Amino acid sequence: MSILWGREVIELGSQWRVGSGESIRVTEDRWIPKSNSFKILDPPLLPENIRVSELRIPSGSWDAGFIRNLFGEEVTKDILSIPVGYLEHEDTLIWHHTRDGEYSVKSGYKTALILDDIAECSNPQAVNKWWKSL
């Protein structure tokens, strides 16, 4: 068991909360709220590192026509359902598995249980020991 395993758990349970959209990459980052992976699973061909902020019009609202032209119906619906934050607010990395968005060891452990590595682990006591050592 390594610290990299813990990193995988954190990545699995975290997602971006959209503020300005300047920090979030459209196709690479986890920001789609209703997707299991929080990512766009079948992304269109877009310039590398295009930001979520580029899916908005100058007033800050979503550019619905542009989004509809780029993405399928389901992804478009998910994007347009994201409340439009104030452009001056920073994007925030949050923990999906708690109500307040804050990571806890308990919620991290529950998230870890869904990883295939846990299900296939031949020594569950080692997993429990690793989590208790945190």
Structure write-up:
This protein is mainly α. The protein has six helices and two strands, in the order αβααβααα. It has helices at residues 3-13, 64-70, 73-80, 105-112, 116-120, 124-132, and strands spanning 14-17, 92-95. The protein has a two-stranded antiparallel sheet with strand order 1-2. α1 (3-13) packs across α4 (105-112) and α2 packs antiparallel against α3. It is elongated and about 55 Å long. The two termini are 13 Å apart. 15% of the residues are buried. The model has no long low-confidence stretch (mean pLDDT 81).
Features:
134 residues, two-stranded antiparallel sheet
Describe the secondary-structure layout.
Elements: H1 3-13, E1 14-17, H2 64-70, H3 73-80, E2 92-95, H4 105-112, H5 116-120, H6 124-132
Antiparallel strand pairs: 1-2
Summarize the structure.
The chain has 134 residues and is mainly alpha-helical. It is 36% helix and 6% strand.
